[in-house]
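User: Need the bound-state model for iron/sulfur cluster:
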Amino acid sequence: MPYFENCLLCPRRCGINRYLTVGECGVDARIRYANALLYKGEEPPISGKRGAGAIFFSGCPLHCVYCQNFAFSQMAYGKPIDLEGLVERYLILQKRGAWTIELVTATQYAPYIVSSVRLARERGLRLPIVWNTSGYETIETLDMLKGTVDIYLADLISLDETFCERYIGAKDYPEVAKKSIKHMYEQVGNLKIGEKGRGVKGLIVRILVLPENVNRIERSLHFLSKEISKSLYVSVMDQYTPVYRAREYPTLRRKITVEEYERALAIVEEFGFENGWRQTHHLKRGVKEVEW
Ligand code: SF4
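Assistant: Bound-state model below.
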């Protein structure tokens, strides 16, 4: 595919030939994935009762020091798979009762995703396609995904430049993420939930609460409330765990406290968001409340 000879698929815009070498994302032009399974840990419209049919891809354009998926995102662990193999995985997951097909960190493979979903649709794939993303996307790649992706499940990691430079290795993340999340919203709108609570189409934004609110979530929420919508579905996540290189940074060496999470929820409420989810991992692992 021509996209990989001069790769500009993500905001890093490496411009390299991925048939010959790897880019900033750590992967070459072959599709690699770590796992394909039914995953129950996502928001209710994505997971349902049986789980999302999640495929975890290798590589990532960002370099978060606390990456929860570091083995395959940062160290590019994974097995190669071709287009036919991907189509087969989607259809197997559908057969096993997946609520949606969730593609986790797939930006670096976007053209393959468009082709594989088209083929899978022709062969009977009916499930919504969920794009689980860091929010670090180009407008061109989002336009390529139009008509393929039904639901964007986007992190808004931080709009603080200093944080982004230090902890996720992308000083330009705030500017890029603001534009890309706006574009996602223009493309798919607010989340629509269909029969039995299954997500049909739309945007969900995730806010991960970090110790000492080091990522300044009020900036992210201010942006979302003013420039997107107060009806936006916001998912406030409490599951931060100090893994990968997090222990090199004193602030990131511990999980968040119940008080820090409650404070984060209070900030979300102050901004007047009407829809979303909070987690109750700190009370009982794996349980999510559906309403604010
Ligand atoms: S997808 Fe990878 S190779 Fe392509 S621009 Fe992004 S980091 Fe560079």
